[in-house]
Amino acid sequence: MSATSTFRRLVHPVRARLCVLRRDERGSAAAELTLLTPLLILLLLFVVLCGRLADTKLRINDVAHQAARAATLARTPSQATANAQTTASAALASAGITCQSLTVSTDTQGLKPGSTVTVTVSCSVGLGDLTMLGVPGSRTFESSFSSPVDVWRGTSTLAQAGGTG
What is the pTM (predicted TM-score) of this model? Predict the structure, then answer.
């Protein structure tokens, strides 16, 4: 007997067992699930992050709407700016949004009946606060809204004269 034939006799049963084991699929679903679970969890957390980002954008849009409406109810441009700032801060607090930096700019266009008031709200939100997952970084949301000043409302005499009160 040669060394080659002895080797073949020993290797052949091992190969046959390996072929049988390769075709055996018991436990493969559990192994695949074990390998895919971390990826599925990451995908779920990404979907949560995207949902929270979309929700925050909608809330910032609503804050800009509320601030513009509050500014149109003022009688003077300075009061309109103050009303917009106060309303935006209060609306963000009630919506549960904490801004790292908040900017509220108000364009009153003289605050005359029939004109429009445009308020732009810019809020920088930490992603860790937003997702409650400790994600690093921040995202700045910006929204503008224009609201008309009522045509039939009265104005103060100081505003008609072009002054600021």
Answer: 0.70
- Quick count: other Cβ atoms within 10 Å of Cβ 147? 19
Between CA 20 and CA 23 the distance in angstroms is 5
DSSP state of 94: H
Boundaries of domain holding 31: 20-149
Residues 6+ apart with CB under 8 A from 106: 67, 71, 80, 81, 84, 85, 117, 118, 119
Asked whether residue 4 is domain-assigned, the answer is no
Backbone angles phi, psi at 161, to 5 degrees: -80, -5
**Does residue 29 lie within any of the structural domains?**
yes
User: The CATH number of the domain where 71 resides is what?
Assistant: 3.30.1300
What is d(CA 99, CA 39) in angstroms, rounded to the nearest whole number?
A: 31
Task: Express each pLDDT in 56-88 by its tens digit.
Answer: 999 999 999 999 999 999 888 999 999 999 999
Q: How many domains are there within the chain? A: 1
